[in-house]
Structure formats: C-alpha cells, structure tokens
Amino acid sequence: MSNSTPPAAEPGERPTRVTIWSPFAYRDYVMLWLGSTAYTLTTQLSVLVTAVWLFEETGSAARLALLGVVQLFVQIVALIWGGTLADQLDRKRLLAGMQAVTLAALSVLAILAVADALMPWHIYAATAVLAVTTVLASPARGALTANVVPRTHLMHAVSADNITRQVGSILAPLMFAGVAEYLGLTAAFVMAAVTAIPSVLMPLAIRADTRAVLAPGQVITGGPREVVRRAWEGFTFVRKHQFLPGLYLLDIGMTVFTFYRQVLPALASGLFRGGAGAVGILTAANSLGSVLGSLVVVAFERYPKKGLLIVYATVGFSVSVFLFGTASVLWAGVIVIMLMGGTDGVSVTMRETMVQLETPDAMRGRTVSLGLLAANTANNVGTVWVGFLAAEVGAARTMQFGGLISIAITLVVWRSVGGLRAYRYRTS
C-alpha cells in the first residue's frame, strides 16, 4: 500500500482507470476506512438502542422528539468549534480523542443498563454528549479523506466511504434486531460500547501528516476570539461561493420536514404496527438503498452535470417520502424506504465530493463543519417536527406533508442557484 500520490501518466500513455477499489491501495485510507466503519456501527447502534429503549419506557413519540431538541442546542455551538479545530489541530488525533469520549459515554449507559438503573434522563444526557463528540469529530473525519488519497481518487473514496457506512448501517440494525429480540436491550447497550473501541484506535494508525496546510505566512493562535474569527472566515467563504449555499439549502429543505430516522420506532408503530424488529428491517433497507445510490454515483462518473444530479436525487427522495406515508404494509414500506435511501445516497455522495473538490485544505474543516451544521440542525429540527406532528396527526399524514414541502423547496433552490445548475465535473 502507498501513501503517496501516483505519478502522472507520460504523454501518450493511457492513464490507469480509477475504480471504487483504487483508494484501498493507500494504507492510510484503509486505516481511516476501518475506523469509520466501526464508528458507523457504533452510531447506528446507539441511535437505535436509545430510541427504542426510550419509546418502550415512555410510549411517547413526543419524548423521542425531545432527543432532537437536546441535540439541536448542543450541536450548534459544538460545530463552530469542530470546524476550526479541524483546521487547527492534528485531524487524526482530534478524531480519535472525540471517539474515545463516545466510548466512555456508551460504556456508562451499558453499565447502567446492566445494573437496571437506566432512566430517561440518562438517555438525554448521553445523547447530548454523543451529539457534541460527533460534531467535533465529523469535520476532522470529512477533511481527512483528501489528506490520505490523491484528488483523482477523491470521488471514488467518498463513494466508498458512503457505501461502507451504509453497509455498516445495514449490519447494525440487523445486529440490533437480533440482539434486542433474543437477548434484550441491555445486551444491545453493551454491544454499542464494544463496537466503539476500533474507532478510537484506527485513526491513530494513520501515518500521513494530517494537519491543515496553511497559506504562506498564516499563523494560528488560540482563544475564543480567534475561534470566532476563523469560524466567520469559513462562513464568508461558503456564503460567497457560487453553489455551496445551494448544496446546503437543498440538504436543509429535504430534511427539516422529512427526518424520520430517530423517530422511526414511532413511525413503524403508526404505519405498520411494528416493534424493534420492524425498526431494524426498515433501517437496514434504507441503508441498502444508500449503498445502491452511492454505486449509481460511480456509474455516472462521466456524467458532467453533477449539480443537476443532486437536484434530481433530491426530488426523487421527496417523492419517496410522500409514498412512504401512503404505505400500509411492511413490505411496501421496505421498498419505498430503499428508494429514500438510494436517492439520499446519490445526494450525500455528490455533496461531499463537491465540497472536498471546491475547498482549499486550510478551509476544508470549516466548510465541512458548516455543511454539518446545516445538516445536523435540519436533522434535529426534523426530529422535533416529525415526532410532534406524528403524535398529533399520525405518521402517514406527517410523511406525506413533508414530501410535498421538500419538493417545493428543491424546485425553489434549483431555480435560484445558477451555480448549482451550471456545475460540471468529470473524474477523467
């Protein structure tokens, strides 16, 4: 395996074709990939086990919605720090440190569950801690990809990342469903903690220098004022960019009124009269769709209108959300949620690739952070919206209404952001 960028082809020499497997020729990418895979399992398991335990304990979709409120308040501030830290500290060490805190928080929940001392407020407190560690680590993780593979491999590396995360997201709910059904939720809490261990160790095995490349003469100092200044610098870069605001607005529009993952126990109960097993099956189907969506991106690598590809995918997602609200049997819900995952997979893969390609290394952490701020804020607002609305008008009407609003917002962004329509990119 190599850590260096491959030499350019000689004149007249046919360049080596880059495939989805090409990034795995780089040892540091493999280490990042292994850590990300473990963290995907950890994240999915922790979301499922905490949501299902809380719903079974309280029987309230509104109590699930409060998880979004908790995350919303802590993540906004943390993301401002996360982006600046990713452009200031060693990214691999920052990533490992935050995931070590995740391991500690999940270990506490597991111990409380084993001791039969777990209470709802413990879930909310742990959710707050995990929200902070996730958003502090995510900009570093997002910025690391461009540090460990050359630019020619970037789209394929991002696609492989997303495919792997979604494969993990298929395995995690199936693991959760099996363990929860046969061993109980306490065992699922323990499993979530154990899977966090490799996510701490793997980033530390990366050999490359993963500190941000600064502009000539640029000096970074500490202190809250410097953090605010650098965060504003990143915001200004994004605001003035020709299409990055459009990317983030699309993500917000398709999420605020449709985010279903954390309230899926309530949706599964309301639409299909299902419990933990149905939640696991639906989550796995959604992730399988995302895998297929990321493969679609690779198949369309020579299609130059990557900006419009995101718009098409967002419209498809919105239509699928509406159809999910019309499903009344589990098998139909599985098919539709696969479509939701597939269209979302196309959108996520292309958004991440375009951000990586269009951002200088010294600014990448903050740009990724702002994208995560938009996404996570939308996720949390969406959790609150979907949870409370489902409690009032039912799961079916909530999803139908959300799909229609998402379509309308997508069309407005498509017409308003010319840079997104005009964006062209080929990998070869």
Key structural traits:
428 residues; mainly alpha; Growth Hormone, Chain: A; 15 helices; globular; disordered N terminus
Summarize the model shown.
It is built from 15 helices and no strands. The protein is mainly alpha-helical and 428 residues long.
Task: Kindly provide the radius of gyration, computed on alpha-carbon positions and rounded to a whole number of angstroms.
Answer: 21 Å
In CATH terms, what is the architecture?
A: Up-down Bundle
| Tally of DSSP β-strands | 0
Main CATH class: Mainly Alpha
CATH topology: Growth Hormone, Chain: A
Counting structural domains, the number is 1
**Tertiary shape:** globular
Count of separate DSSP helical elements: 15
Ranges with pLDDT <50 over ≥5 residues?
A: 2-15
Strand content is under 5%
What value does the average pLDDT take? Answer: 79
The helix-and-strand class reads mainly alpha
Biggest beta sheet summary: none
**Helix-strand pattern, N to C?**
HHHHHHHHHHHHHHH
Question: Could you state the CATH homologous superfamily?
Answer: MFS general substrate transporter like domains
Helix content: over 70%
End-to-end Cα distance: 23 Å
